[in-house]
Structures are given as C-alpha cells and as structure tokens.
Amino acid sequence: MPKWELIGDFLKISVIIITKNEERDIAACLNSVSFADEVIIVDSGSTDATVAIAQSMGAKVINRPDWIGFGAQKNRALDAATGDWVLSLDADERISEASKIEILQAINSNTAQAFYLPRSSAYCGTFLRHSGWWPDHLIRLWQRGYARFSDDIVHEKAVPTGTIGKLKNPIIHYCHNDHEEIIAKMNRYSTDNAVQAYARGKRASLFDALYHGFWGFFRTYFLQRGFLDGSAGLMYAISRAEASYYKYIKLRHLDLTAKNQ
User: Fold this and answer.
1) What is the pLDDT of residues 87-126, one digit of tens each?
2) What is the CATH number of the domain that holds 160?
3) Per the confidence metrics, is the pTM higher than 0.85?
4) Which of 28, 47, 48, 133 is least crowded, fewest Cβ atoms below 10 Å from its Cβ?
C-alpha cells in the first residue's frame, strides 16, 4: 500500500540510524524502511563498506568518528532529521510490511505523540520469546520535538513527552549472530557499563561481581523463564551472567586503579 494512501504526502518520516562497520546489515535495514522520506545515518568511523552502501541507497551519512556514547550519538542523528515524525532503528533491525502499515496508520491517527514498538530478537538464529527479550517494548517512533535520547553511554533510551501509544507489530532484531560477535559485544558493553557506573559514583567488590553474575543467570533463566527458550535460552542466560560479572569486575578495576594512582 503506498504511503500516501495512509497519511498523505504532506507528512515526512525520518529514519535515524547510528553505524560503525555495519556492511553486513545496513542494506537490509534500509530496504525495510524504503517508505521513509529520508534516512539520516551518523557513522562512527566505519572502515568497511557501510558508508558506501548507505549512500548508494540514498541515505544521508554524517561522519562523526568522535564517539561520545550511544545516547549522544543518536541525538546527533535526531538533530539532523527534518521529518514530521522520527523512527529510530539500529542497523541490525528491520521493519516488516505489517509493522510499516501500522506505523503509517499510527502517524495518521493523531492519537499520540510517541509510540512503543515491541521488538522480536534473534539470538544465534533463534528468536527468543522469554528470557526478558519479549515483547521488549521500546519508544522508537515519535513526532519530532516530542522525544530525545538520554545521554547514557550505553543502554540509552528515548525519553518522550506528550501522549504515548503502543503498537502491536514488532521490530525484527537480528542481533548476536554468532559467538564471536557475542563475546565482542559483551566486552565492549561491559566496559561502557563499568565506565558509566563509575562516573555516577558506583563502586564494586569481587563479591559484587560474583553476586551480579549469579543473579544475571538466575533472573534470566528462571524468573524470566529462559528455560522455555531451549538451548538458546540457556546460552543467553550464561552470556547475561558473564556480562554482569565483567561489568562489575571492570568497575572494581577502575576503582583500584584510581586509588593506586
């Protein structure tokens, strides 16, 4: 269904994405949002074909290699958007045809200034329906001027103002494609989490690292019923335990390093 049959050609939709070395995913992501009027990409110094692919598909690419954290980087993309509505995506996410139609109907409905979208995430090829990953509602669609991202280095979120609605069709999220990627992301995110926690005055002991690692597994596998996701649920629970352990052990290391200087 053409976009103008739903909302008219007087409303513009901007899609915003931040990237670094996303050549594997960026084309599929952009294809899924071909209904948008513009795509704004803020790239953090990709050394692969990400920028070339995005530009060949009509995206506006802004090169900002001075990494300042996920929240601030996404606000850079948001500030460059000119559309009446903004849809925020990561490069490894896709908008399905059903989700596209629902998004356009929501914009036309005038019922809210921002919307939660559910997200369906794949872990090593298996879509998790438990483990704390479903329905994973996130504010991803809003009328421009009615939301900004928090300035968190990691685990940023869109902070909306005005009325908030909720959509039913999920964003499709192809994250954690293999174990090498999982380990790399775990290392990067645990470092960012530790730095952010340290800057906020938090400190940790070895016991804290052990406790949070155990709790990460127990919460994911038992309380959030990760066991119902089979072997993928078990693997994810273990990775959550490792991520929590490394966050707090790195936080402890930051504290010890500061005290020894």
Assistant:
1) 999 999 999 999 999 999 999 998 999 999 999 999 999 9
2) 3.90.550.10
3) yes
4) 47
Please state whether beta strands 119-123 and 171-175 pair in parallel, antiparallel, or not at all (unpaired).
parallel
Q: Sort strands 38-43 and 60-63 into parallel, antiparallel or unpaired.
A: parallel
CB 74 within 8 A of CB 67: no
Q: Is 235 left (phi over 0), alpha (psi -120 to 50) or beta?
A: alpha
Which residue from 171, 6, 34 is spatially nearest to 98, judged by alpha carbons? 171
Same domain, 22 and 129: yes
* Total domains in the fold of the chain: 2
Phi, psi of 188 (to 5 degrees): -65, -45
Does 5 score more than 60 pLDDT? no
Q: Using one digit for the tens of pLDDT, what is the confidence trace for 210-239? A: 999 999 999 999 999 999 999 999 999 999
Q: How far apart, in whole angstroms, are the C-alpha atoms of residue 154 and residue 82? A: 26
Q: Which residues pair with 82 in a beta bridge?
A: none
DSSP 42: E
Same domain (yes/no): 110, 187: no
Q: Which of these, 194, 214, 212, 215, lies nearest to 203 by C-alpha position? A: 194
User: Domain of 154?
Assistant: 4-174
Q: Are residues 23 and 118 in the same domain?
A: yes
Q: Return the CA Rg of the chain.
A: 19
Long-range contacts of 98-105 (CB under 8 A, 24+ apart): 98/169, 99/167, 99/169, 99/170, 99/171, 100/32, 100/33, 100/35, 101/1, 101/6, 102/167, 102/168, 102/169, 103/141, 103/167, 104/3, 104/6, 104/7, 104/35, 105/6
